[in-house]
Amino acid sequence: MTKFILGLILVLSLVFVVWSSDRSASVRGEQPVKSEGTLMLPISTVIVPHHLLAKDDISHTLQEVSEAVGGDTIERVILLSPNHFDVGRTWIIGSAKTWDTPAGALVADSMFLDTIRNRDTTFGQAILEREHGIRDLLPFVKHYFPHATLVPLALRDGIPNTTVDRLAESLSAGSEHTRTLLIVSADFSHYLDWNFSRFHDNRAILALSGFHLEQIEKLDVDCIGCLRVALQYAKSAKTEHFHLVARSSSLEVAGENVIGEETSHVAGYFSQEAPDVESASSQSVDLLFSGSIRPEEMTENARRIYMSQDANIFMLDGDITLSRESYLPHQQGIIASGAKIFEPGETYSVREIRGRKMAFVELSSQYSPDTVLTAVAQAKQEVDYTVVYWRTAIPNQVEWIDMSHALADSGADLIIGNQNLGAPSLEMYHDHVILSSLEDTPLCGTTRTCPALMVGVSLQSSQLQYFLMPVKREKSVSLATEPLRSDFLRRLSGTSSDRMVRSMIEQGFFALEKR
To answer: Which residues 6+ apart lie within 8 Å of 127 measured at CB?
Structure first.
């Protein structure tokens, strides 16, 4: 009888412990899922900046994640960062040291580090001392996940995909039976302005939201390898829905658009649950028109403008060329390449980009104006967006205005001219954009600094967004800074009588509703 009572007490005690544990998890909002013997968290992977100007974005994101998973129950945090200073000789470096934070010591998981050690890794006590991508996030990690051990890793720029994929597989395999959270420490667009950083970040958010692994290598981010690991780790954990928590810009925070000083921030996490709101850029196609300027002519930082887009369109050996390459800032020996848009005898050419059709029409001396107008009207029936390249010399301003308006009335969304009659101008004509030229040819003849314009276009489901970036051609091409930038945009807006339109052009961004 005594044995029976003792046995009953033991069973009831175990039931109470299990009930208490489940109840505690429920109170925390935690919903662990068992799948084939593997403990899975509702959120597995987090992306936050390491730029401390965005400390509120970091804090809000990690707080939201901590509340969802039960931060005090997380056993291990894997923290991935870029290797900003190229420390070490291997692709991956890590540290087994104990870190001091205001909330207490953060102990490295040395046993886990041993399981991923191979020819691509170097681990040392002091190897990450200077790495702010790791160091600056440690107080946040300790605060929101107080009982977790740390696996800090930094990835060198240019790390091969095969090495990244092996790392992702090792991290996933080693985390199957523990409550492990992967945190990626990454800043996004660099060295542009606040308009183009938003243009590039829209593409990054789209790639993350759509789980497009193949697009990661084109993104303007300081750790492409980290994002590749993040997507594969999230997929392994069956948390493939990206939730955007915050996005910001260092220049917007500072309140001044200092060209070339931008760092942007994207913060969010991958969850089992789909987000309530789909990304606004989920159906966008992004293009960059750079005229006669090619990637290899740009300075290293300015070359980042060629990252992220679906297509870069420029002149190459006298031909208008469409390139789907992303030209990386540290890439050596760059030679621009791509496919000629127009073949001999074509009045217009159609290209499909991510399911959207673009028509390119060439106005040249071999075609009469009526032939070109007919081609524009025909193309408009087939495609989502039509671009006209006016490549012949323009005899006078009246003919330019009359013909460009006729092209727009026939269906051209964007007209890029070869105007040499004066300073470039931009006209918004019935929701069509008419650019007389991308280069300030008259000014180029009077100064060593030759201004030009690059135009980013984002084709979204309900509107067309235009991003304007003045550049300057000297020995190499760099982004135009003040006062050249403002002067160029002011002259570009000069033909418009609408004050609001002039203001938008001078700000370097405007959006037109699609009809």
So the answer is: 87, 88, 93, 94, 95
The domains located in the chain, with CATH, are 34-271 (3.40.830.10), 285-513 (3.60.21)
Name the one residue in this structure whose structure tokens are 């990637």: 295
- Cα angle, residue 458 at apex, residues 371 and 513 outer, rounded to 5°: 80
Cα distance between residue 417 and residue 404, in whole Å: 9
**CA dihedral (164, 336, 200, 414) positive or negative:** negative
Distance CA 20, CA 24 (A): 6
Cα separation, 361 vs 372, whole angstroms: 7
Give the tokens for residue 207: 């790639």
Structure tokens at 254: 């500072």
Write out the H or E segment, with its range, that includes residue 236: helix 224-236
Taking the C-alpha atoms of residue 160 and residue 169, their distance in angstroms, rounded to an integer, is 15
Q: How many residues does the chain have?
A: 515
DSSP track, 162-218 = HHHHHHHHHHHHHTTTS-EEEEEE----BSS-HHHHHHHHHHHHHHHHTT-GGGGGG
Single out the residue of 180, 206, 327, 191 nearest to residue 266, CA to CA.
206
What does residue 226 show for φ and ψ, rounded to 5 degrees?
-60, -45
Tokens at 267, concatenated: 């913060």
CA distance 465 to 200: 12
Q: How far is CA 28 from the centre of its chain?
A: 33
CA distance 274 to 277: 9
Within a 13 Å sphere around the CA of 279, how many CA atoms are in the beta-carbon half? 24
d(CA 426, CA 301): 27
Residue type, 235: K
Burial 211-239 (b: 16+ CB within 10 A, else e): eeeebbebbbbbbbbbbbbbbbbbbbbeb
User: In this structure, what token pair is assigned to residue 11?
Assistant: 């069973």
Residue 189: what are its φ and ψ, rounded to 5°?
-55, 140
Q: Is 420 helix (H, G, I), strand (E, B) or coil?
A: coil
List, for residues 417-459, the tens digit of each pLDDT value. Answer: 876 656 688 999 999 999 988 987 666 655 678 899 999 999 9
**One-letter amino acid identity for 267?**
A
| Per-residue model confidence as pLDDT tens digits over 62-105 | 999 999 999 999 999 999 999 999 999 999 999 999 999 999 99
Q: Are 356 and 342 in contact (CB under 8 A)?
A: no
> What pTM value is reported for the model?
0.88
